[in-house]
Write a structure and sequence with these properties.
By secondary structure, the chain is an alpha+beta fold. It is built from 15 helices and 48 strands. The mean pLDDT is 93.
């Protein structure tokens, strides 16, 4: 079976460490890396990913082979590439560096490419983009340290039962002779004592240890080749959450008023929980104010509709733990910059395989060819006005690019890079060279000790697609411990009311179980509230996202120190004793918070209800199957929608071409068949007339915990023939005898569709989200609204910008409808440029940072369908105002 892609580490959002940079030290004996082939993953023809070595051991993988090659100038032999005292085995990718002294010049960091050389009957090997990993080569280690200096470890098991191998690990960093700082936590040249408390560098609690252990010291030591460097840190052991005497209380913010009198139990509505991550005791009021403002914004600002319509169908809560370090852990490498006398840091963009247009290169293209800069590289850059060579990154950043002479630096590179790359070096712009050299004082920010622990990025990795992702810290416990925390917490009372509890007997009625219980094994839970946890990090950097275990985001603050928002980063200060940074955070407050904080919340919250991203980041096709998009109501494959022969849009195959709805109710119990053509349908009681005798209605299958998808099961049109006095039971009649409605189980929808005017072209009985005008436009274009063919580069350039229908191909009578909000199909979604469609030209899911952003009709419809389908009429009332017939 052939492969379609190859990479170090799994694709984005999978938390793989296999792509992390490798640090090797020449020292007194030289050093070898692990086999790189052990870190390679391949995408096979069915779209799934597998470790290459495991795949090659199957009958399907015997016809796939790769070879490894460095980006520097090297001599090829039968078994390896070599030069500068560096050897790379072609079959395994193992790198060996010879002992000191190092040649001069020699590459100090470089990429190694994994290149497909054999792919069976699949795509030509040359058509598969190589994978790459970064290697650093140093002469010696200057110092090491651990961070955070104190690590609090929460038990997952009771004391005394057995040794507990925790999921806690202090981070070890090293500064090398070349001033480079690296994350060396998982290096084989590191050991930790007392060994009874550690397995490698992971904390391991002996069975003899008591439930709680006060802070004690441990020592980290490097190997002889790394100079026997050592440092110390401290660990404390905290009890299981089940034995924690004073767990925090959850505070109710706003939401469904029926929760107070018990008419509605919390497990029947979506419950959004804000969890404070890295908010110190001094920041407690800021956390309360900001979460209150987020909820208020979502409830009242037009850009967040339909959440305003749904506000009383949800509940919002918050919880904050005392005695936490301020800030979150930044585990990725950062670059530094000054603004108005203050220091900031932000994540470094990873290298990008260069295009053929050298004039368009930026520092990430240059990284691919020559590696990352070091301090010594600055000494080869001359200031043409003073005649002096640059002595520091701060000086470099102060000098305009056009005032600098990079010729000596380029001359050095020509001795190191492959001959086919050397010819491009003279074409580099001064701006690109300046941006690259400005990274020469890159380092790390010290980590913090708090719970729940978040991190920005991960250990540096050249193939990281999202190096600035904000996520749960992979070295600070497990989701099991977080679940134990939620199991333990209860609701704070509100005024004289009793605390809100679940509709289950004590002791299992703690409100916290909302966010730990698995709804697939708890049928009383209408929603998967685990997805609605909003871990709000006290950080100015970090990319928000919404994995299945909850949302993670940051606050966006107006800078009290005057920093231009374009240069947004983490406020930091330099450690006076080592090449490291420490956070220097302002205290978050209502006065500083910016709108982006709550627009990000609205965007991420929508993800949890089955709405996917609609922007483009990757200049390539989406290659997985349609089934991979089942969790997203607003993304579908182009191949699903387009006619395979003509490329025309098949309107019945558009996933989101659902009925517009006038009135709707959820079916609350089994449908009863009265006779050959009549049925009774139980629905919630209403205080006002809702359905009336004579109404045309349709049933639609609605599945618990699943977003609306392609071709949902719908019934033929039925007529309402009776409404019970309490308006909680409808009698409906089918046009034909023998109709089976048993598939429409409780939770499904009964609704009155919007009839289409007789004059509509093409004719149809009902109106759907894709308007007749949009259908006519796609027919004229012959494909998607933003063009029949997908231009990968144009899609990437557009990124998250608004797009409109391809007006150049349209007649004058259709051009007025070419607006970004027009529902149809558009190229580009789920971060991929082509082979995937989204519903509109712009949406909160495409660009949430603009004041003009709104949820498109499809995303809004999806949210209502998931949360409270009886609110569909609110949305349709709005849609009617701008629905183009």
């Amino acid at each position: 079976m052939p492969i379609t892609a190859i990479r170090f580490g799994l694709p984005v959002d999978t938390g793989s460490f296999d792509a992390a940079d490798i640090h090797l030290v020449r020292g007194t004996a030289g050093e070898s890396s692990p086999d790189l082939i052990e870190k390679l993953w391949v995408q096979i023809a069915n779209g799934s990913w597998s470790m290459l070595k495991s795949f090659q051991e199957t009958p399907e993988g015997t016809d796939v082979e790769v070879t490894f090659q460095p980006m520097f100038k090297a001599t090829e032999s039968t078994a390896e590439w070599s030069n500068f005292g560096i050897h790379i085995k072609k079959k395994t990718g193992q790198i060996r560096v010879e002992k000191n002294p190092a040649p001069d010049p020699a590459p100090r960091n470089f990429l190694v490419e994994a290149i497909v050389t054999k792919n069976g009957a699949g795509a030509a090997p040359a058509s598969i983009t190589p994978a790459f990993i970064r290697i650093h080569v140093h002469s010696s280690v200057k110092s090491i340290w651990v961070t955070p200096s104190l690590l609090s470890v929460r038990r997952a098991e009771p004391a005394g039962a057995a040794r507990e191998l925790t999921m806690y690990q202090p981070t070890v960093r090293a500064e090398f002779d070349d001033r480079c700082v690296g994350d060396v936590t998982d290096s084989k040249s590191i050991s930790v004592t007392p060994s009874d408390w550690f397995v490698a560098t992971w904390v391991s609690i002996p069975p003899t240890a008591p439930e709680t252990v006060p802070p004690f010291e441990y020592t980290v030591t490097t190997s002889a080749n790394w100079g026997h460097r050592s440092t110390t840190g401290k660990v404390e052991i905290l009890p299981q959450w089940a034995r924690e005497p004073n767990p925090p209380l959850v505070e109710f913010i706003d939401g469904n008023p029926k929760l107070f009198d018990g008419t509605v139990k919390p497990e029947k509505v979506p419950n959004v929980l804000f969890v404070a991550c890295g908010w110190s005791d001094n920041d407690a009021q800021g956390f309360k104010d900001i979460t209150q403002d987020i909820v208020q914004a979502v409830r009242t600002k037009p850009m967040f509709q339909p959440f305003g319509y749904l506000a009383t169908s949800m509940a919002f809560w918050r919880v904050m733990l005392p005695k936490q370090d301020a800030g979150i852990s930044v585990t990725s490498e950062v670059c530094q910059f000054d603004s108005e006398g203050y220091l900031y840091a932000k994540n470094i963009a990873p290298p990008v395989r260069p295009s053929n247009e050298v004039s368009k290169w930026d520092h990430w293209d240059l990284q691919y060819l020559v590696g990352l800069p070091l301090h010594d590289d600055l000494l080869l850059i001359k200031d043409t006005e003073t005649g002096y060579f640059i002595s520091s990154a701060d000086t470099l950043r102060d000098r305009p690019a056009e005032k600098l002479d990079f010729s000596k630096l380029i001359a050095r590179w020509k001795l190191l890079v492959r001959p086919n790359a050397a010819q491009n070096l003279n074409l580099l712009t001064a701006k690109t060279l300046h941006a690259w050299a400005s990274l020469s004082d890159r380092t790390f920010i010290d980590e913090v000790n708090n719970f729940p622990a978040l991190q920005v990025g991960d250990a540096p990795a050249a193939m990281a697609e999202s190096p600035d992702n904000l996520e749960m810290h992979g070295r600070r416990g497990s989701t099991r411990i977080i679940d134990q925390f939620f199991d333990r917490i209860s609701a704070a009372p509100i005024g004289n009311n009793a605390p809100i509890v679940l509709g289950t007997p004590a002791p299992n009625n703690n409100i916290g179980r909302l966010w730990s219980a698995d709804p697939t094994t708890n049928p009383d839970f209408a929603f998967d509230n685990r997805r609605f946890i909003f871990y709000l990090g006290n950080s100015e950097i970090g990319r928000a996202n919404a994995p299945s275990s909850g949302m993670v985001s940051r606050v966006t603050l107006g800078n009290p120190r005057g920093m231009d928002l374009y240069f947004r980063g983490q406020p930091v200060k330099r450690d006076p004793n080592r090449n490291a940074l420490v956070a220097d955070l302002p205290s978050p407050s209502r006065a500083l918070v910016l709108d982006e904080t709550w627009t990000t919340f609205g965007h991420e919250l929508a993800h949890t209800f089955g709405v996917g991203d609609e922007y483009v980041e990757f200049a390539r096709d989406y290659s997985a199957a349609e089934s991979s998009l089942d969790e997203f109501a607003n993304c579908t494959l182009a191949a699903t929608v387009l006619d395979p022969t003509t490329g025309a849009v098949r309107f019945d195959r558009i996933k989101w071409n659902w009925h517009r709805i006038q009135r709707s109710s959820v079916i609350t119990g089994p449908i009863t068949k009265l006779d050959i053509d009549r049925f009774t349908v139980p629905i919630p009681t209403t205080s006002v007339p809702w359905f009336s005798v004579g109404d045309a209605v349709v049933l639609r299958k609605r599945e618990r915990l699943k977003p609306l998808g392609l071709a949902p099961k719908v019934s033929p049109e039925l007529k309402v023939v009776d409404v019970s006095p309490n308006r909680d039971l409808l009698t409906i009649r089918a046009a034909v005898a023998g109709l089976d409605l048993s598939a429409f189980t409780p939770g499904s929808l009964i609704f009155t569709p919007v009839p289409a005017p007789a004059t509509v072209q093409p004719p149809r009985p009902y109106l759907t989200l894709v308007s007749p005008a949009a259908e006519r436009m796609m027919t004229v274009i012959g494909g998607a609204l933003n063009g029949k063919a997908c231009d990968v580069n144009a899609q990437l350039d557009a990124g998250s910008g608004a797009q409109v229908a391809d007006a150049a191909t349209l007649p004058d009578n259709l051009k007025p409808f070419a607006k970004p909000e027009l529902v149809g199909v558009y190229h580009g979604a789920a971060r991929y440029a082509c082979s995937i469609f989204r519903p509109t030209g712009n949406c909160m899911m495409r660009e949430h940072e603009l004041d003009s952003a709104r949820f498109c009709r499809v995303c809004a419809y999806t949210l209502i369908e998931q949360i409270d389908p009886q609110k569909h009429w609110w949305l349709d009332r709005d849609y009617q105002k701008d629905y183009p017939l």
